[in-house]
Amino acid sequence: MILLAHILLPFTYILLALLIKKASIKSRLAVLFATFNLLWALALLPIVQIKDIIVVQVGGWAAPYGISLVADRFSVFMLIMTAIIFFLVTIYATQSVDKARRKSGHFFFTFGILMGVNGSFIAGDVFNLYVWYEVMLMSSFILMSLGGERAQMEGSIKYLILNLISALFFVSGVGLLYGNLGTLNMADLSAIISEKSDMLTHLNPALILMVVSFAIKGALVPFFFWLPASYHTPPPAVSALLAGLLTKVGIYSLIRFYTLFLYHDAPFWNQLILWMGVLSMVIGVFAASSQFDFRKILSFHIISQVGYVVIGLGFYTVSGIAAAMFFLAHNMLSKTNAFLVAGWVKRQKGTLNLKTLGEVYKESPIWGVLFFISAFSLAGLPPLSGFIGKYLIIKAGIEANYIVVALIALFVGLFTLFSMVKIWLEVFWKDVPKDRVVKIPQKKRKSQYMLTSSLIMAILIVVMGLWAQPIVTYCEQAAVDLLNPELYIDKVLNFSR
Amino acid sequence: MELIIAIFIGLMFSCGVYLILRRSIVKVILGIFVLSNAANLIIFLAGGITKSEVAFIPDGEQTLDPTLINDPVAQVLVIKSIVIGLGIAAYILALKYRYFEVTGTHDLDSLKNTDQR
User: Which residue ranges does UniProt annotate as crossing the membrane (chain A) (predicted)?
Assistant: First the structure.
């Protein structure tokens, strides 16, 4: 029952939030529950180290018939990262999000997202995964439009329609897969597919529909258009949360599917995944360098960074997948923190247009340093976490004989640095342009909680860069587990109490 | 029977795609509904269509001859995805209403303010 807590904790908060009217109590309760969630995720770590894979059969029905919740090392890693990000963004949101939004259910729906994300990380059943996706998406739709500003409405209509189409692809894929194999339990599916090697091409239509759906969710080229059109419209705390968590769920599912099903037909999938990753990296970073809005640049960088993770998967070696996982974790921290700094700048200056901003560093050196840490971690400068992440990916690529891909990854890093330096210069460094009239909010508002959460995140980025060794070792263990799906199948199907 | 439903699903998908390519937001939303029902039908069809009993084990017996019944799992899945579709339909219509209140337009082409240029 240990895994169920990850679903029940957010659900309890959702129920409690219905009963409480005052915004301040709602916020405090949200921080409390986010702490519980973090502690619980950390408690899973020693258990997964002993048991390798934690399996829970909900309702007590055996594996292919009941609903299995499965957490291996990779899932636990993602659960912990999610919990950290969620905890810090919740602290940030208690101050950053305005009272009307907090009152009308901001935290209610963020916990909906948490429930969906946690659920997708531990789902052991394809249809169950789809349901958690819907939980996550419904909450994110509402968070996206909560407040009802004009830009938000536009952003959420695009976000909504394109994500619904991805959900439709997923359902159709589930239907075709069920029609072919008669089961939806992931371990069972993987076992059946590995026995029937002649069915591989027969299954590809269903799997392609699902992979397209993950690619839309994970914002890979050529399915990324919803992301930069919508992520800069909601309040900063919301876009930080979405940027930190949602696309990563799509990538998580892609890695899970690849290591359980798609690897059987590696000649077909490997090149496809690899080049999708390469194109995402290149196109994301080029599109980012032409933008002049703080959050839009960061949104395009999500696409580019997701590409790095996917090429790590495309190498399909232990070091490649370990590097992909490390990079995923690093990216969740650095990207969310960059969005948090953007939120502070928006609060102080009322705009995020690079052309009208300037001299922020003079005004507040500490926020400048925080942005510096996260931005240059994204760009991959030592000793920050991004350096280790990129180094591992490129090393894995060279070892797996994908020299061209590794070189492209290096080259993309240069352009990432370019956009980050651009934001740094335009927002923090240059003089405020004389000819631009900016309405600066009258009084400076307090931001101590925002600062605390961003500071903790920046410290984590530095720590992750300096003491990377234990994390990399853990990622390698997880990658070994992922590359041996027999272990997963065995633990889930031969589950005994 | 399965062939007829399969052709019908194909027709629904093409209608849905035609609708989501329209300029009016309402038609796009209708297209989403049609597509989601087409996807539900795929799951329904995945269970196979045969003339059969309901999947209940009668009183006093332990097992049931599987050839007599239709696959109940597909029906459970389709009910679940219909319910999810209903929730989404309610929300998307509310969002559309609010969007119309804020902007007074149905035109998707006026939605380009947040796009990348």
Answer: 6-23, 30-48, 74-93, 105-123, 129-147, 159-179, 206-227, 239-262, 268-288, 300-318, 324-345, 366-388, 400-428, 449-468
